[in-house]
Recover the amino acids of this structure.
């Protein structure tokens, strides 16, 4: 099967776009599976864009990535010429366009190879995925409910790459698995328009919002998070996707479904206190738990049972002493 290439043509008339598509397809269909896509697709490799739109913010942003951009401009005097990454229309002879695409694909492939080698080298050396500080995670999700109150569509960005998107109204969460490991750099959650979310949804699996956020926090939160010193009760059970710690996490869920403290779970299961705090931190960000009074928790029930048992023992010995006349 031929390798796919993702191409977007933006800002031109429909007839011009169709002409360019026919020119490109007729030359490259034997070598590649050509995927015509949109300008915000995270898989985009080649962008052919009307020169009038080359300065918009999104194009400025992706120009710093590995996406190869060719500007198109109508000028009959320079028709077919390529000058400073600008191809002048109409295209009378397509050879110049073919050459640019071949060179652009070489650049894309070389960058991917270099990045893969670098990533493999880094993983072999460290074997530790990058984490986001708990403060950065909490602040980003806090903005969603405070600064952006009333807005429903958001994306999670890392180094200008869209890691995930979510829809507050429909309670949907979609994550790009290619960016499952966080990279060094900036992380943020920002509002987006409906079209960006709709396009993102086409390619990735839906999760219920709170479960998606919980899994994202669990995957990317550091080992050390805020301590949770009170009693808590689950409102919804998380659905962990990885099998490695699934048994431990389900045990934590079972205890918290009744309401208890970290100390109580640790005492009953011997699960690491750090693991329980991380679990509660993910639940807190995903709004899946509530704080309750210790008197309503399993801790209080256990103390009550213990007191009753002690009382029964004392009563037995008191009765025995009375019978023996002691």
């Amino acid at each position: 099967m031929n390798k796919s290439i993702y191409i977007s043509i933006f800002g031109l008339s429909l007839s011009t776009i169709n002409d360019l598509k026919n020119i490109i397809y007729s030359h490259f269909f034997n070598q590649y599976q050509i995927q015509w896509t949109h300008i915000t697709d995270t898989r985009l490799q080649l962008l052919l864009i009307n020169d009038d739109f080359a300065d918009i913010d999104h194009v400025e942003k992706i120009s710093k990535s590995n996406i190869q951009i060719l500007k198109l401009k109508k000028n009959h005097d320079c028709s077919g010429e390529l000058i400073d990454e600008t191809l002048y229309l109409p295209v009378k002879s397509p050879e110049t366009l073919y050459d640019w695409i071949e060179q652009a694909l070489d650049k894309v492939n070389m960058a991917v190879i270099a990045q893969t080698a670098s990533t493999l080298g880094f993983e072999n050396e460290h074997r530790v995925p990058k984490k986001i500080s708990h403060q950065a995670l909490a602040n980003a999700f806090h903005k969603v409910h405070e600064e952006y109150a009333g807005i429903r569509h958001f994306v999670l960005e890392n180094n200008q790459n869209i890691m995930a998107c979510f829809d507050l109204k429909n309670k949907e969460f979609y994550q790009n698995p290619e960016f499952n490991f966080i990279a060094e750099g900036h992380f943020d959650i920002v509002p987006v328009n409906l079209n960006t979310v709709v396009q993102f949804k086409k390619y990735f699996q839906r999760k219920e919002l709170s479960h998606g956020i919980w899994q994202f926090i669990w995957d990317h939160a550091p080992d050390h998070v805020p301590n949770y010193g009170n009693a808590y009760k689950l409102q919804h059970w998380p659905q962990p996707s990885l099998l490695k710690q699934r048994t431990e996490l389900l045990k934590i869920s079972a205890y918290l479904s009744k309401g208890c403290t970290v100390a109580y779970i640790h005492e009953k299961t011997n699960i690491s206190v750090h693991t329980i705090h991380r679990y509660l931190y993910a639940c807190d960000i995903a709004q899946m738990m509530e704080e309750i009074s210790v008197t309503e928790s399993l801790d209080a029930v256990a103390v009550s049972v213990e007191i009753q048992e002690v009382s029964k023992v004392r009563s037995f010995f008191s009765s025995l002493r009375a019978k023996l006349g002691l």
Residues 218 and 296 are 27 Å apart (CA to CA). The longest helix spans residues 95-126. Residues 134-220 form one domain. Residues 116-129, 304-308 have pLDDT under 50 and may be disordered.
